[in-house]
């Protein structure tokens, strides 16, 4: 497939020459991104919105390591020369005494790579009418799950290209296609309203509307609709500490919010996973059965094969059998934090400065109890039996099942995290729905309290992550279910 | 660029291209019946402070220039396209037009193009910002850092930026509104504990700068002192400080007033609730759209569709008045479209009086996880990771707690009260909440 930024080979030479002229090292980032969103409400197309973003960002470093950045909303060889000059001028204005210096960029290895997207469609030529009709059918099917339901069905199709040139002759060019169908489901009964969601993601919207994927979305939507309808009648759970079983989408949020952000070493002076600015490699941070891995997966929502500094992105084992092994680092933070450069730098767009970020993070447990059913086929009522069969729950033991991730937040410096699930079930002989609530606590306590898992690893949970004002797509997962023992530093809810 | 002449040149050329497509000579499938667009061009200068380091790879001094916008096209066959705009439409209009057509759809609820009306004036420009050299940004960062270090702060993050530019709204019915805009913002976050920021369309006064820096220093110091009082968990008054109140109002009031959410059934409120002017909050509480305050973000002479700005109550004396409606959702709801702008509570009462009035409770300065709460239910359960115990009106050191409740019920209760400080747009809110204190 032809790539949109193919025609800008000359910018490599310009980057090299202009950086010499300005006496700086330059990283030139070109971005060309297009997306289409289609939204269907109550069986009708409510909106189609087309978005495009195209421009150039240039980050430079003086020989002393002072940095400057300049961006413009155009891709033009002449503009690159101007941007390098402008960024160099800013860098040199940094106060010599107080301006932070970092010369790590001079140690980077040169790369020349081209990775086109593995897709056979052109976003600009897609037949949107076929997609609209499929979304209307999906919306109607989902609304039919309950008379009290309002359903909004959205399709996002995105195609993004980055091309990175550096003063050392690096030319890294890659494309990332993404698409996701999301059913937002709201139930309203007797004046009480509640909302949940279900989604599927991939790279080709024509595949997502195929029978196989629609069936998968339908099963997920059934689960979400049941939760939404139950929630309007559910009673609250008393706040406190409980033994928990969480599904893989929540385990992804646990790995992401409660651990992944703390493993990003650009904040090595502050993160709970570092001491005196150095990553705490070798320390026990989780139960011995727990491992956490982050890395790009082709076709995943969080895929990014190279950093926007032009460095290949590694798959990183952050925790291995409970021991902290590696951090998520870019060229600027790795050495200072005492870890290797794993190519973790991402940026929301050409106009942002890159920072270390996750891609697809998954939490796995050793010797998980095997299950011969798909996740979507396991009802909350069956879960208690499975846990008892697996030896992870005693006959009379109390346990809560937390289902469906609604997002979360962490303070990596203090280790405090909180996230919200869309449904809570108290697993007795029957699964009793409880009002959705938060799951909060301390990073290290949560990981040390993990005692087992059920099922194989599912890493297709999709989300969007915010950090330092920048949003990027991300993914992840875990074994289908993860069990967390009752712990005084993990709290469910806040009501009395 | 960045001036009226460039704006005229860019917009006149775009208008000409769009109007050419309205002629009978245009091919049928690319023939336009009407259009409107909003365009904004700005140049932003910024510098950051990352873990005490001024500039550097994550916070480098930066200049970003861009033109962004949004266009709505009504095609000859009655279908509609909504799309973003960027500068390249200036040179590649024919290519853009085909892509716009690809994304067109039938939308019977979308009204036509609005004829121009009378528009109010609002000043969003400060010429001093245009003359601000980048060195002034460094000075602010360095001066503030020094003051915070003198206050005993160890790790400081933050940044400052200024912007200049213009915004323009035009349509095929003759609407043409141009206004210059500027912006200035800065903020500091100390010891990964407490942060505060300033943001307006004018330079900050010395008093405003001092308020941000001294508040960060003072509150961070208080949050480092462990509580001297043993506070049991239970129901008690909590005081959401103004920045936290803003987050709660955005999550539960603004999101539930959004026209799309109301009309489509994803809000806590229905169209009938608004028609019936249902009382949902305490009679002491009113909320207004405030789009006409000079030098404030969110102010504008009109919406991007051309609805003139005015102050408008969305909740009055606790009763629902109107959802936030663009013209399409106004049509669907059979109501009048509303102006757009920040939602504010009229100033009344003093924040300091609220603190003094609490016998035993907590002051909440930061929460984690609010954005992930279920908006429609009004319920929340979040971690107050930075909070102070209040005993007999005095601050008695830091605690951490989970706070929970239902904001709609809390704002309907007689226990609820609010009060303002001199600098914030939002009040502090005193509500009764369930508090689970974390034990050490």
Kindly describe this structure.
The complex is a heterodimer of chains A (496) and B (440). By secondary structure, chain A is an alpha+beta fold. Chain A folds into two domains: 4-231, PmbA/TldD fold, CATH 3.30.2290.10; 244-492, no CATH class. Chain A has helices at residues 10-21, 77-93, 128-143, 205-208, 211-231, 248-260, 334-337, 380-389, 443-448; strands at 24-41, 44-62, 67-72, 112-115, 149-166, 171-189, 192-202, 244-247, 274-275, 278-279, 290-294, 316-320, 323-324, 345-346, 355-356, 360-365, 400-411, 416-427, 431-434, 438-442, 450-467, 470-484, 490-492. In chain A, strands 8, 11, 12, 13, 16, 17, 18, 19, 20, 21, 22 and 23 form a twelve-stranded mixed β-sheet that branches. In chain A, strands 1, 2, 3, 4, 5, 6 and 7 form a seven-stranded mixed β-sheet that branches. Chain A is globular. Chain A starts with 9 loop residues before the first helix and ends with a strand. In chain A, 61% of the residues are buried. The mean pLDDT of chain A is 93. Chain B has 440 residues and is of the alpha+beta class. Chain B has three domains: 4-211, PmbA/TldD fold (2-Layer Sandwich), CATH 3.30.2290.10; 219-248 and 348-437, no CATH class; 268-344, no CATH class. Chain B has eleven helices and 17 strands. In chain B, the strands form three sheets. In chain B, strands 1, 2, 3, 4, 5, 6 and 7 form a seven-stranded antiparallel β-sheet that branches. In chain B, strands 8-13-14-15-17 form a five-stranded mixed beta barrel. In chain B, strands 11-10-9-12 form a four-stranded antiparallel β-sheet. Chain B is globular, with a radius of gyration of 24 Å. Chain B starts with a helix and ends with a strand. Chains A and B meet through β1, β2, β3, α2 and β6 of A and β2, β3, β4, α2 and α4 of B.
């Amino acid at each position: 497939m032809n790539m949109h930024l193919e025609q800008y080979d000359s910018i490599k030479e310009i980057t090299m020459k202009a950086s010499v002229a300005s006496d700086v090292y330059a990283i030139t980032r070109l971005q060309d991104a297009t997306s289409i969103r289609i939204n269907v409400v109550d069986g009708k197309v409510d909106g189609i919105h087309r978005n495009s973003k195209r421009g150039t960002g240039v980050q430079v470093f003086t020989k002393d390591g002072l940095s400057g950045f300049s961006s413009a909303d155009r891709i033009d060889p002449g503009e690159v020369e101007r941007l390098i000059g402008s960024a160099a001028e800013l860098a040199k204005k940094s106060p010599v005494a107080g301006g932070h210096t970092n010369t790590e960029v001079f140690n980077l290895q040169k790369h020349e790579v081209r990775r086109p997207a593995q897709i056979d469609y052109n976003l600009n030529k897609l037949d949107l009418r076929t997609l609209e009709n499929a979304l209307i059918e999906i919306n109607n099917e989902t609304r039919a799950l309950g008379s009290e339901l309002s359903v909004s069905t959205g399709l996002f199709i995105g195609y993004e290209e980055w091309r990175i040139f550096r003063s050392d002759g690096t030319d890294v060019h890659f494309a990332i296609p993404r698409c996701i169908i999301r059913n937002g489901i709201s139930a309203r009964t007797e004046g009480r309203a509640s909302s949940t969601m279900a989604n599927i993601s991939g790279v080709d919207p024509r595949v997502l509307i195929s029978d196989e994927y629609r069936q998968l979305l339908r099963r997920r939507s059934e689960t979400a609709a049941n939760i939404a309808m139950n929630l309007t009648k559910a009673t609250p759970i008393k706040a406190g500490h409980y033994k928990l079983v969480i599904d893989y989408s929540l385990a992804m949020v646990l790995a992401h919010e409660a651990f992944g952000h703390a493993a990003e070493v650009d904040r090595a002076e502050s993160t709970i996973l570092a001491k005196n600015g150095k990553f705490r490699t070798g320390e026990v941070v989780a139960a011995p059965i727990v491992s956490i891995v982050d890395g790009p997966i082709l076709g995943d929502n969080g895929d990014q094969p190279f950093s926007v500094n032009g460095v290949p992105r590694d798959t990183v084992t952050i925790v291995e059998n409970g021991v902290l092994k590696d951090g998520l680092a870019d060229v600027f933070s790795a050495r200072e934090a005492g870890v290797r450069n794993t190519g973790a730098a991402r940026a929301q767009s050409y106009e942002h400065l890159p920072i270390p970020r996750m891609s697809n993070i998954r939490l796995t447990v050793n010797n998980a109890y095997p299950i011969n059913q798909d996740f979507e086929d396991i009802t909350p009522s069956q879960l208690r039996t499975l846990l008892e069969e697996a030896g992870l729950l005693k006959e009379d033991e109390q346990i809560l099942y937390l289902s469906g991730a609604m997002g979360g937040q962490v303070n990596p410096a203090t280790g405090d995290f909180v996230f919200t699930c869309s449904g809570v079930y108290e697993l007795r002989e029957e699964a009793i729905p409880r009002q959705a609530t938060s799951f909060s606590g301390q990073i290290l306590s949560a990981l040390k309290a993990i005692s087992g898992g059920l099922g194989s690893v599912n890493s297709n949970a999709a989300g969007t992550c915010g950090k330092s004002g920048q949003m990027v797509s991300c993914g992840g997962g875990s074994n289908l279910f993860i069990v967390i023992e009752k712990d005084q530093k993990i709290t469910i809810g806040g009501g009395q | 660029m960045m001036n009226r002449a460039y704006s005229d040149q860019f917009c006149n050329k775009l208008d000409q291209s769009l109007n050419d497509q309205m002629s009978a000579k245009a091919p049928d499938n690319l023939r336009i019946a009407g259009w409107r667009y909003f365009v904004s061009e700005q140049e932003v200068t910024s510098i950051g402070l990352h873990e005490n380091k001024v500039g550097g790879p994550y916070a480098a001094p930066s200049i970003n220039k861009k033109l962004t916008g949004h266009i709505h096209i009504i095609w000859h066959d009655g279908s509609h396209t909504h799309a973003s705009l960027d500068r390249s439409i200036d040179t590649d209009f024919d290519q853009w037009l085909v892509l716009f057509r690809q994304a067109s759809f039938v939308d019977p609820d979308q009204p036509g193009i609005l004829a121009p009306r009378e528009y109010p004036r609002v000043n969003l420009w400060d010429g001093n910002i245009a003359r601000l050299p980048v060195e002034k940004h460094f000075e602010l960062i360095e001066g503030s850092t020094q003051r915070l270090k003198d206050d005993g702060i160890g790790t400081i993050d933050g940044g400052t930026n200024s912007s200049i530019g213009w915004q323009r709204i035009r349509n095929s019915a003759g609407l043409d509104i141009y206004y210059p805009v500027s912006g200035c913002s800065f903020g500091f976050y100390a010891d990964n504990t407490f942060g505060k920021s300033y943001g307006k369309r004018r330079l900050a006064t010395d008093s405003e700068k001092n308020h941000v820096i001294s508040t960060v220093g003072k509150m961070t110091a208080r949050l480092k002192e462990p509580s001297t009082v043993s506070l049991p968990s239970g129901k008690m008054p909590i005081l959401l400080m103004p920045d936290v109140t803003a987050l709660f109002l955005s999550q539960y009031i603004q999101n539930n007033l959004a026209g799309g959410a109301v009309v489509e059934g994803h809000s806590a409120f229905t169209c009938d609730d608004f028609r019936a002017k249902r009382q949902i909050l305490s009679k002491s509480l009113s909320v207004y759209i405030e789009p006409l305050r000079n030098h404030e973000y969110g102010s504008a002479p009109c919406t991007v569709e051309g609805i003139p700005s005015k102050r408008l109550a969305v909740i009055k004396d606790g009763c629902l008045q109107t959802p936030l409606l663009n013209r399409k959702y106004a049509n669907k709801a059979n109501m009048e479209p509303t102006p757009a702008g920040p939602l504010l509570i009229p100033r009344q009462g003093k924040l300091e009086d609220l603190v003094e009035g609490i016998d035993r409770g907590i002051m909440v300065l930061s929460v984690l996880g609010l954005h992930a709460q279920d908006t429609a239910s009004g319920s929340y359960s979040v971690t107050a990771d930075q909070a102070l115990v209040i005993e007999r009106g005095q601050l008695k050191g830091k605690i951490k707690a989970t706070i929970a409740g239902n904001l709609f019920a809390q704002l309907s209760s007689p226990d609820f009260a609010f009060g303002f400080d001199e600098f914030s747009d939002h009040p502090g809110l005193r509500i009764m909440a369930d508090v689970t204190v974390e034990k050490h």
